[in-house]
């Protein structure tokens, strides 16, 4: 039957042969729940490109398809094998890990995952296209038909570029970028563009690191109890709005584990982020930069530089994507640390990835021999697509109980999924805290989210973040601290409770962290530390620093503060705007 089909539709059969190498890995990724259908759809379209030479030289179809088939097979085998062993999509992040890792250690790591049946799977994957190639015959088409079809295919495959350049007029670089990201799921572009992007981002990263190496250290840096054994942990969340946490008064029980240990925590309840975007928010939080002085990131030490100068061993564990166009800055920050653990090598952000993966390397970092440790854990948190952030066992919310009546049926599922993601995030953060119990010496953990997320929190339906149309949900972030008894006694940790209601922006976080680490230096500003007796409330700027006229004080834009619970209790229908709009 298949042989007859191949003879009746020779051109389509050749297309299926080429498509096989790209579609199978993408289909497996989708079926396994790792990602949606975007990669598969792009592979289907971009594989049409290989038909153009067939239309130009149809009599060479068997030789051409054999040569190209070997190339496509080799490229697709990399992605197929990576999915087979690690259950993830192959990306430029994997290339980064390969080139940054010791060859012997990498081989040992991969060997620990290999199973005998993997060999059979690879043989089966390779045998199918061999059989398909044997059925290929010369397509008999008129010159006119072949010419028109070839032009049409070039236009279809190249539409991301032409549409961006000619229709949207977005410029050459952006148009090229649109074309590349759509071709990348297809073989062999997964390797070609993956390597090119790796090289581009590596160059950008090295440029920033070179500048950072030239930055002078902090002057007159001192540390109290510098000989004491200390473990300081910074947990960076993602897209978590504190107003959707029961720890902060949300009616749904989204943080049962943190609720249970509330007496052990200091829960700061008036902290906001400066930017509703990960890179921009953390670029300020982890350095001396702020919205008025963004270039300070490149001119002064970062938080990591500061802790290394103080004699700490710094480990960076991340479940964020390792190397993407947007994440270069985060990877650069991680490279400033002494040790890095990269857990998320997916090509797309909208891929299934669970934060519990950080727990094992976190435990390993805790057992390190250094007496003074800083461990930074960067979570994927509650980043959209929310149902990809937690395993099925954490599906908890499904109905309308506790849901404002303005959330319609079309948005209810996503609303519930966000709450499930918050509940899973509660499990991860509380697990990190529990892992610290019993750690010798002074131990402190601080957790805050890079930014919030609006998920149908107001009658005007919206899901996401928009700096030019802000709402409190995009900026209100959780900020909690936990300490063991040794740290609490040495630093009056319980006394921090009197600071819980202070208005604060994570843009000044480096001062709070330095204060908590008992560091002092010539340029330290105690008024910018959340836990300092010398604290002074300052304008909490939100807006785009590249467009200074948009910078405004959060409290002036949203004078009612955290109003979500009030709105939820009122639960009025349409006609209400986001709090703060129009005063």
What does this protein look like?
- The chain has 583 residues and is α/β, with parallel strands linked by helices.
- α1 packs across α2 (10-31), α2 packs antiparallel against α3 (38-46) and α12 crosses α17 (328-335).
- It has a seven-stranded mixed beta sheet with strand order 3-11-8-2-7-5-6, sandwiched between helices. A two-stranded antiparallel ribbon has the order 1-13. Strands 4-12 form a two-stranded parallel sheet.
- The model is unreliable at 572-577 (pLDDT under 50).
- It has two domains: 2-199, no CATH class; 229-570, Alkaline Phosphatase, subunit A.
- It contains 23 helices and 15 strands.
- It has helices spanning 2-8, 10-31, 38-46, 51-56, 61-86, 92-100, 103-111, 116-134, 143-157, 159-167, 172-183, 189-213, 256-260, 278-285, 296-299, 303-309, 328-335, 359-366, 409-436, 485-491, 509-516, 554-557, 564-570, and strands at 222-223, 230-237, 265-268, 271-272, 313-321, 339-344, 372-378, 442-449, 454-455, 463-464, 479-483, 504-505, 519-520, 541-542, 552-553.
- The chain is elongated and about 85 Å long.
- A hairpin with a 7-residue loop joins β9 and β10.
Q: Which terms would index this structure?
A:
583 residues, alpha/beta, Alkaline Phosphatase, subunit A, 2 domains, seven-stranded mixed beta sheet, two-stranded antiparallel ribbon, 11% strand
């Amino acid at each position: 039957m298949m042989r007859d089909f191949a003879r009746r539709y020779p051109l389509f059969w050749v297309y299926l042969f080429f498509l096989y190498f790209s579609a199978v890995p993408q289909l497996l990724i989708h079926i396994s729940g790792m990602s949606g259908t975007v990669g598969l759809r792009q592979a289907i379209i971009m594989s049409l490109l290989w038909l153009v030479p067939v239309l130009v030289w149809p009599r060479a179809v068997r030789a051409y398809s054999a040569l190209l088939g070997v190339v496509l097979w080799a490229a697709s085998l990399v992605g197929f094998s990576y999915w087979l062993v690690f259950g993830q999509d192959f990306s430029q992040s994997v290339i980064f890990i390969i080139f940054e890792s010791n060859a012997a250690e990498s081989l040992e790591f991969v060997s620990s995952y290999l199973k005998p049946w993997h060999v059979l799977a690879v043989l089966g994957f390779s045998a199918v296209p061999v059989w398909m190639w044997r059925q290929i015959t010369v397509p008999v088409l008129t010159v006119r038909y072949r010419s028109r079809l070839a032009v049409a295919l070039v236009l279809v495959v190249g539409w991301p570029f032409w549409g961006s350049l000619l229709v949207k007029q977005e410029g050459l670089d952006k148009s090229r970028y649109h074309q590349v990201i759509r071709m990348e799921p297809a073989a062999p572009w997964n390797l070609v563009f993956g390597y090119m992007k790796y090289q581009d981002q590596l160059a950008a990263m090295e440029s920033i690191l070179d500048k950072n190496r030239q930055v002078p250290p902090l002057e007159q840096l001192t540390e109290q109890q510098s000989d004491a054994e200390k473990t300081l942990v910074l947990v960076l969340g993602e897209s978590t709005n504190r107003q959707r946490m029961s720890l902060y008064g949300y009616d749904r029980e989204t943080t049962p584990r943190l609720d249970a240990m509330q007496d052990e925590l200091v829960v700061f309840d008036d902290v906001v982020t400066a930017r509703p975007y990960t890179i921009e928010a953390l670029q300020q939080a982890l350095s001396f930069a702020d919205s008025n002085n963004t270039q300070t990131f490149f001119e002064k030490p970062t938080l990591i530089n500061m802790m290394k100068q103080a004699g700490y061993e710094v480990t960076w564990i991340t479940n964020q994507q390792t190397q993407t166009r947007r994440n270069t800055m985060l990877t650069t920050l991680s490279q400033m640390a002494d040790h890095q653990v990269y857990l998320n090598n997916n090509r797309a952000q909208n891929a299934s990835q669970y934060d519990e993966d950080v727990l094992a390397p976190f435990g390993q970092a805790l057992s390190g021999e250094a007496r003074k440790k800083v461990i930074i854990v960067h979570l994927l948190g509650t980043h959209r697509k929310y149902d990809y952030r937690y395993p099925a066992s954490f599906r908890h919310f499904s109905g309308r109980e506790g849901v404002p009546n303005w959330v319609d049926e079309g948005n209810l599922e996503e609303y519930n999924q966000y709450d499930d993601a918050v509940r899973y995030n509660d499990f991860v953060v509380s697990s990190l805290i529990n892992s610290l119990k019993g750690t010798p010496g002074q131990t402190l953990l601080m957790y805050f989210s890079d930014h919030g997320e609006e998920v149908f929190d107001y009658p005007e339906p919206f899901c996401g973040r928009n700096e030019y149309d802000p709402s409190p949900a995009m900026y209100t972030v959780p900020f909690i601290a936990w300490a063991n008894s040794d740290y609490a006694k040495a630093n009056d940790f319980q006394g921090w409770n009197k600071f819980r209601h202070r208005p604060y922006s994570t843009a000044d976080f480096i001062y709070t962290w330095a204060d908590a680490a008992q560091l002092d230096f010539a340029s330290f500003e105690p008024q910018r530390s959340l836990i300092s007796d010398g604290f002074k409330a300052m304008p909490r700027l939100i807006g785009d620093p590249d467009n200074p006229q948009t910078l405004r004080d959060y409290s002036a834009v949203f004078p009612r503060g955290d109003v979500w619970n009030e709105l939820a209790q009122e639960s009025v229908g349409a006609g209400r705007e986001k709090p703060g709009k129009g005063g």
